[in-house]
Amino acid sequence: MTKTFMRFEANPAEGMQPSSFTSPGSFTTSDTNEVNHFYYKTDDDSILTGVWESAPCKEEIAAYPVHELMTVISGSVTLTDTNGKSETFTAGDTFFIPKGTPLTWEITETLRKFYLIAE
Q1: Domain presence at residue 2
Q2: Is 25 left (phi over 0), alpha (psi -120 to 50) or beta?
Q3: How confident is the model at residue 4 (pLDDT cuts 50, 70, 90)?
Q4: Mind listing the pLDDT tens digit for each residue in 70-111?
Q5: The CATH number of the domain where 51 resides is what?
Q6: In this structure, is residue 23 part of a structural domain?
Q7: How confident is the model at residue 119 (pLDDT cuts 50, 70, 90)?
Q8: How many structural domains comprise the chain?
């Protein structure tokens, strides 16, 4: 995918595609909708950027699998570390999770976010 620069849109003109980053058993309501749009990815998938949306879910993550910078477009996600410290992120918030971080990831309201992932 070769581009020089790009604008991210919360509702990509090319549309969103079904995705499966979330484990099916993690959804906390009957809504299991999860969609994604890649804006950029390297040939080896070591860098990914895009917009992602998921229905409410909760996952205990022993070690976050990638470095990820996110900006919430809509919805809400709460992160809780192993010491019980919690923080909720909503529209307009930007946050970062380093690779290897143990945490609980809980989407309490359908979440749409921009992301930059680096392995």
Answers
A1: no
A2: alpha
A3: confident
A4: 999 999 999 999 999 999 999 999 999 999 999 999 999 999
A5: 2.60.120.10
A6: yes
A7: very high
A8: 1
Structural domain includes residue 101: yes
In a domain, 47, yes or no: yes
| Backbone conformation region of residue 92, classed left if phi is above 0, alpha if psi is from -120 to 50, else beta | left
pLDDT at 54 exceeding the cut of 70: yes
Give the dihedral of Cα atoms 117, 19, 103, 92; nearest 10 deg: 70
The domain in which residue 93 lies consists of: 17-118
CA distance to 45, 51, 74, 83, 84, per residue, from 24 (Å): 23, 20, 22, 27, 25
Cα distances from 102 to residues 31, 63, 70, 83, in angstroms, run 26, 5, 17, 10
Are the C-beta atoms of residues 4 and 18 closer than 8 Å to each other? no
- Euclidean distance between CA atoms 37 and 30, whole angstroms: 23
